[in-house]
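**Polypeptide and fold**
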Amino acid sequence: MNHESIVGHSVPRKEGRDKVTGRSQYVDDMVLPNMLFGATVRSQIPRGRITKIKFSPGIPWDQFVIVSAKDIPGKNCISLIGDDQPCLANELINHPEEPILLLAHPDRHILPKAVESVKIEYDPLPAIFTIEESERRSEIVWGEDNIFKTYLIEKGDVDAIWVKADHIVEGQYTTGAQEQLYIENNGMIAQFDDACGITVWGSLQCPYYIHKALMALCSLPAEKVRVVQMETGGAFGGKEEYPSMIAAHAALLAIKSGKPVKIIYDRMEDMAATTKRHPSRTRHRTAVTKDGKILGGEIEFTIDGGAYLTLSPVVLSRGAIHAGGPYYWPSVRIHAKALATNAPPHGAFRGFGAPQSLFALERHMDRIAQVVGLSSVEIRRRNFLQPGQTTTTEQVIREPINLEKLLDHALELSDYHSKKQRFANENRLGNIRHGMGIATFLHGAGFTGSGERYLSSVVGVEGCADGSVRVLVSSTEFGQGTKTVLSQIAAEALALPYEYVSMAQPDTLKVPNSGPTVASRTVMVVGKLVQSAALGIRQTLISSNLLAETYTAEEFRAACQRYVAEHGEFRSRARYEAPPDIFWDDVKYRGEAYAAFAWAVYIAEVTVDLTTYSVSVDDFVALQEVGKVLHPLLAKGQIIGGVAQAIGFSLYEKVVWQNGRMQNCQMTNYIMPTPSDLPPIRVFFEELGNVHGAYGAKGIGELPMDGPAPAIVNAVEDALGVSFDFIPLLPEDIMDWLAASSEKNDVIPAGGVR
């Protein structure tokens, strides 16, 4: 085959031209005949019982379609992992944005006033809003166990390590909620007729999640539920599970009205009502030798799940498994729990629990270094996992990773040692302080444990009548490059030009269930299946004597055209089969948690201005081993975007809560970093390959969310000599610390620890 490799090259994005020319169609661009517009009437209290609903005069209510829980034809729930979240509240309210009624009208501009004119009376009940309150008051408030999920990971003999320790280091670390803040707000259109059932079009990540939810809600068979992804303007996990709620609301209005219904959230509703990153608290107690080797420890990882289960169990799982980081723990006990509070449910967000637990671990590693008297670099070097050793879940590291080499390379790229020395001298005078911080970490690719086995994903590759090839997957494009990279994989497998391959629109009527577009699984897991299915197309043509072992693109096109003309539909499918050396024990929560890990060392350089109390990130080095980089430009963009998002998580993005409701739900008061707030983000890759991924690829999308926060806060400590163990770290936090230090007649040290 005369074919120049496509994998490893930055080919043009499949959807790029349509996006930049304005031809891409988003859900709010779509208009159907006789379409109505929908809106949601929500609770105004965090917890209580509905006693009365009144419709104020002055609104022509006879012109509205009104839907309540009694109009639901199937089960009143948003089916996902558990069925505890109602589609519409019938009696009990559990958070202040709980949907109660749905309204639809031909004029979208009338809807806001109509929503305000629905008056709901409640019998309020006590509510809880924090992890600590949930722990203290669960029996009083909930009357039942309010722990959504727990996990226990145990390795070795933790009880025996404490007497052997030269140091026992303790710490508590917290992270706040974070809004995904995608460019395009959530939106859905639904249409219903008795013959075809329900069809929804929308901005979404996971078509088959919505498909499952609508089957249960509408009491319809699979063939009468169709979900179509429109062009989607960003997601970051925020369009993983919540679109099922919006699709359900649009579907109910469409069923009752007999007309298509569009629901598009404005920014305020989108920020206030939808899911966010889970707030977390992590406690570490670690036994360490005098030379800095970890003997073992106890880790307690707790997340705030909000009012309903949603995806908290899997967020908790990944956070717990990543809590030990890239280090060797001879003995460890990890307790993990997700608690209920009376805030809107928290859900998926890039990183999926790992950014929370890894922030705690990497801050704790710096604390251990201080206690033992070692540098931040050396404490990590002495505890890195080596090939042949086991993770906290007793997974043997079979990858040929050399974390010490990765660390040395990052130190060289960042000029770490010389800058630290220079900053130590400069920080003795003036109000400007500089610091360097480091984080080393890992991220598992694919669903955790047995997840990929349970999903049993299927993909298809189709030879078309014109001789081109089309990839059939439910994996969605929302800016990260799914269409491009999967097309590259298919083209590479078939030795065809990239232009010969197209992607089918994710549509549950037309594409198989290749699983959700989450968990850094698209390229590694789905891509491997695309590669296999594409090879099936090639082999079929060869075995049919239509194609030689070596061929040109033109010969392939002619063979494909002939096969379709003679046999009709020409599709090859591939189903996921777990590798024989990947096994997970769901009962003991032990074994191969992931088929592969990505590994990284991130180094942040910061300036702290003690006049304005602000922190700026001046330089950022992101070095990662992610297997084969299939599209260098997209891969670099994923890292830059993830680091930028994590800088927001670290220093800017604070969700202000009041009685379970987000108060700063506008882009004028929810502060995120702009380009002027970001440093040069210098991205570097190591490529060791991965036998489980397409052409050696691993997951990449979530990894850059994990490391920046601890690297930045470690750098702030290096600059000020004070430990901050929470994020976001805002100027007022530094100001409060300075005020407290002044009251104690304390001074700001020039470096080191207080």
In short: The longest strand covers residues 432-445. DSSP finds 19 helices and 28 strands in the chain. The CA atoms of residues 185 and 266 lie 7 Å apart. The two ends are 66 Å apart (CA to CA).
